[in-house]
Specification:
- This protein has a single domain, classed as Rhopdopsin 7-helix transmembrane proteins, CATH 1.20.1070.
- The protein has 10 helices and 6 strands.
- It has a two-stranded antiparallel ribbon.
- The two termini are 16 Å apart.
Length: 309
């Protein structure tokens, strides 16, 4: 569903609203021009393009890895190979990991396409940073790049760079989803591109001081990183705070639609977290269902809220 005719556009969390047709209520601050809408649309296209490119990267490197005869031996030697029993099948851990990576990249691309289809005239700060987070999620395909480079004999220093880029995008994603919750809870700041730039700087600063244990492999095809417990705690705290902010929005916005939006973001956050851990086929399937359901609920309810304001 998309806004038709007299649909209203709200500038990223600012209290004033402006109709696309040109009517401007009193008190509106910062006129929402067609250029602003076009810029936002171009940004969504960029996010979608990144997700699509990373999905293609994941597909290419999955094929390249499948053709490597030393893949299983390499994984066994580094202690990251196991077999998952599932429905009378025995699924190798690397097959599950590859499937999970491709699912996350595909999820980022499909939901990015849904945002492009749905938010043609409505400007939502929550959706802007949610789309930003989706683009960072597609960088899960770097896990396959890392493994392929290792099989090809790349140096630990090169692999460590890939590790840091991967961790940096994860930090950036957490910050983006956190900011989306702040806008839902009532933050008023129209300089969202500036906030995005600052978020990139913070992520670079965090990852620059993060130690990488080169040569010591984790189950996700990457080197183990230092302070892993702190990183897990950081990610969990960000997710819980984000959910809390969306629940606060129920009172701030005065609309119970945000209660369902909070449920949606919780399902998405939990689903993506567990899919990326490659725990078991059953856990991945349940998480994928949570991601799909949560995305529909989140996007549909936010779209309805901004459309009818």
């Amino acid at each position: 569903m998309d806004e038709a005719g007299g649909g209203k556009a709200q500038a990223g969390g600012s209290p004033g609203r402006d109709e696309v047709g040109g009517f401007k209520p009193e008190g509106f601050r910062g006129i929402l021009s067609d250029v602003t809408l076009q810029t936002r649309r171009r940004t969504y296209w960029i996010f979608f393009g990144i997700s699509g490119a990373m999905l293609l990267t994941g597909l290419v490197f999955t094929i390249l890895l499948a053709a490597r005869g030393n893949l299983v031996i390499f994984l066994i030697e580094h202690g990251i190979y196991e077999v998952h029993p599932f429905l009378n099948l025995r699924i190798p851990s690397y097959v599950l990991s590859m499937a999970d990576i491709l699912v996350l990249c595909l999820f980022a691309a499909l939901v990015g396409a849904l945002i492009l289809r749905t938010f043609k005239k409505t400007v939502s700060a929550e959706i802007f940073f949610f789309a930003f987070w989706l683009a960072t999620l597609s960088f899960e395909s770097l896990r396959l790049v890392h493994l392929f480079l290792a099989l090809g004999g790349s140096s630990d220093s090169v692999l460590a760079i890939v590790d840091k880029v991967y961790i940096g995008t994860r930090f950036l994603g957490y910050i983006a989803i956190f900011i989306s919750g702040l806008y839902a809870a009532g933050m008023r700041n129209d300089r969202q591109f500036s906030i995005m730039s600052v978020s990139v700087g913070i992520s670079i600063a965090l990852v620059s001081i993060l130690p990488v244990n080169t040569g010591i492999w984790a189950r996700n095809f990457m080197f183990k990183v230092g302070y892993s417990v702190l990183i897990e705690g950081f990610s969990l705290a960000i997710i819980l705070i984000t959910i809390a902010n969306y629940l606060i929005a129920v009172r701030v916005r005065g609309d119970r639609a945000y209660f369902f939006i909070a449920i949606g973001i919780a399902a998405i956050a939990a689903g993506t977290q567990y899919v990326s851990r490659d725990g078991s086929p059953l856990l991945s399937l349940v998480s994928i269902l949570a991601m799909a359901t949560g995305s529909f609920l989140y996007i549909y309810k936010i779209h309805s809220f901004y459309l009818w304001q």
